[in-house]
Every structure is written in C-alpha cells, then in structure tokens.
Amino acid sequence: MLIVMRHGAPEEDISRVAATIEEMGYQARAMPGKQRTTVGLVGNDGRVDGSRLAALPGVQEIIHVTKPYKQVSREWKAETTVVRLRNGLTVGGDEVVVMAGPCSVESEQQILEAARAVREAGATVLRAGAYKPRSSPYSFQGLGRAGLELLARAREETGLLIVTEAMDAEEMDFVAETADIIQIGARNMQNYSLLKRAGRLGKPILLKRGLSATIQELLLSAEYILAAGNPNVILCERGVRGFDPATRNIFDLSAIAVVHGLSHLPIIADPSHGTGHRDMVIPMARAAVAAGADGLLVEVHPSPDRALSDGAQSLYPEQFDRMMKEARLIAEAIGRRVAEPAEIRA
Ligand code: PEP
Ligand code: MN
Fold first, then answer.
1. How does pLDDT run across 118-166, given as a tens digit for each residue?
2. Domain residue spans of the chain
3. Alpha-carbon distance 344 to 320, whole Å?
4. Is the pLDDT of residue 206 over 70?
5. Nearest alpha carbon, ligand 1 atom 4
C-alpha cells in the first residue's frame, strides 16, 4: 500500500503516518519525490485496511498496489531506477552498458587478454565467473578465490568494472570485495536465502532470469532483494528453456518490454546464454538494444576454441568489436548511447 502525501505536507505529518504504520505492525518506507512524498507500507501479506491512515492530516490518497510484487513495481515507483556504478557509469538511464568477457576466469593470461580486447572495443564492465554453476560436477568449476584475485588485477590494469557471480552465501563476502556488480545466476534466481543476503549488501546486484522462470517470478525474486534493503538491482534476460534444440534457450526479447512496463528496475540482455551459438549472438544483441535493453552481457574469449566453458557461444574479439559498432548505431537511432570507457566519457 502507498500513502501519497499532499504537496508540501510538513515533516510532522509524514512522521505521523510512518509511526502509525509501525503501530499497525508494518514497516514504513518514506520516498520523497519531486512533487510529493509517498510513504510505502511493507510487511503485509494481503490487503490492509487503510482507513486509519487515510484520515491522518496531510494524506492525499491511499493506493493499493495490485501486483504480488510491490517495491519493484511501477505502481510503487513510476520513475525508472538508475543504478549508479563506480566511475559514474549508470544502468537504467540513457546509457546502454556493455558487460563483456569470458564465461570463466581460466588463467592470468586469458583474463588479461580478454579484458584488454573488450576494453579496446569499448566495453565498460568485464564479466567472468570465478565460481561456475555447471550442470556436471566433472566440468570446470571455476578458480574460486584465485579467480577473484585475477579479476581484481584485470580491473587494476584496464579500469574496467567487474561483474562476477556469487554462487553461495559463504563466498558472498569475498565476491563482494572484488565485484562492482554481484551476479546471481539463473540457477540461483529462487535461492531465497542468497537473495536476502544480497539484499543486505550495498553493492549492485545483477539478477538473471531462472531457467524456466516467469517474469512474475523474476520480479518476485528481485522483490526479496529490495525488501531486504538493497534497491540497486539490475535484471537480466538470458533465455528460458524451450522445446527446440536449435538454440540453447529461447531468448525472450519481449521480456525487455514486459519488464519495462511492469517494473522501474533496469533490465539488460544476455544473448550468449540466450542462444548458445556465437553466430546468433550479434543479431540478438542488436535486437536487444533496439528493444530497449539497458545493457548487454556478452561472452567474449581470446581463443573460444580453447575455452573451459561456453566456448561455442563466445565471440572472437573481432566479432565483439563489430557488435559494439553496430550496437552504437542502434542505440543512437533510439536516442540512447553505448556507455564508453571512463577516459573517453570524461
Ligand atoms: C554465466 O553468466 O556464465 C552463467 C552461468 O549464466 P546463467 O546463470 O544465465 O546460466
Ligand atoms: Mn557462461
């Protein structure tokens, strides 16, 4: 439920509303806006009788949020959330942020080569996993903490920001120390204790859509993170499981428009896991930018044939360079721009 205050309502009226909400056994979230302050009521499971609040001085109207997710909905907050990253980068504004790099950190040489190549082509965030959720326990599981150290080295050399996955709560703090954005992967989208943990961190969270999650389930998972106190969530469409082996997943482009309608959170697209084949990645990356994606997450490897994970869907550096050029043109055509590395932006 949202309690909309009158324009210019004094602080004491707002505090009284918040205190009354607490007295009723819920939590209050005051949200000052350009025109007026809104106070959100959270912690309820079902409809709350708002008549007591409606009668308080300074209250203009009571809005019942109709969706099962509350704080992530557009009903709750009409303006799009702009997630601010280090270096002045933003996700959710005019910029389209490209996050690129190999599936996994494999060695110092591999990650540095990959970082230099994606930086050269104009990416602003380096993606690579140190902890890898693999279908088989015999597949490469990632370098763990050593991988995080290599990512920190790559950041030091290139100035790129780092997005990397936290797979479990025990390693979350180590990941948070290195990562500028913490990825929660598709398989963990409904790991609610991990989501709550992510909600208690100050760092931006990249939440990927589950293998067969509906958009409502994705938004409810994001709600866990906001409800625990972290508003900096970036959603990611990465395809859902389908019936056709022609592609690894069914890349759901429409999810970008659907999410933008239902939620104020930014959403980026991952055409690499979405398609599973490098030749399909560039057309789908173009389409995602055209559809309004707030960023791209793309796998790029200096030698994809030797990759320890997801080689078939990893772009060669020269393909990535072409993708960036095309993405810039498309972004411009819809009044946006691809974010450029710091010194180019300055
Ligand atoms: C990844 O980003 O490498 C990854 C494992 O993705 P997902 O969780 O979407 O499968
Ligand atoms: Mn991968």
1. 999 999 999 999 999 999 999 999 999 999 999 999 999 999 999 999 9
2. 2-63, 83-345
3. 19
4. yes
5. 185
Ligand 2 centroid distance, CA of 316 (Å): 15
Q: Do domains 2-63 and 83-345 have the same CATH topology?
A: no
List, as ranges, residues with CB under 5 A of the ion ligand 2. 103, 310
Contacts of 46 (CB under 8 A, 6+ apart): none
For residue 143, give both structure tokens. Answer: 């370098």
Mean local confidence (pLDDT), 285-312: 98
Name residues whose C-beta falls within 8 Å of residue 161's C-beta, 6 or more positions apart in sequence: 85, 86, 87, 89, 124, 125, 126, 155, 180, 181
Residue 279 is given by DSSP the state: H
How far apart CA 340 and CA 346 sit, in angstroms, is: 9
Query: What CATH number should be reported for the domain whose range is 83-345?
Result: 3.20.20.70
Pocket-testing residue among 104, 205, 270, ligand 1, by greatest number of atoms within 8 A of Cβ: 270
Whether residue 209 has its Cβ less than 6 Å from ligand 1:
no
> What are the b/e assignments for 42-60, b being 16+ CB within 10 Å?
beeeeebebeebeebebbe
Does the beta carbon of 248 sit less than 6 angstroms from any atom of ligand 1? no
Predicted pLDDT of residue 342: 73
Q: What is the CATH number of domain 2-63?
A: 3.30.70.1140
> According to the model, what pLDDT value does residue 35 have?
87
Q: Beta strand pairing status for 27-32 and 37-42?
A: antiparallel
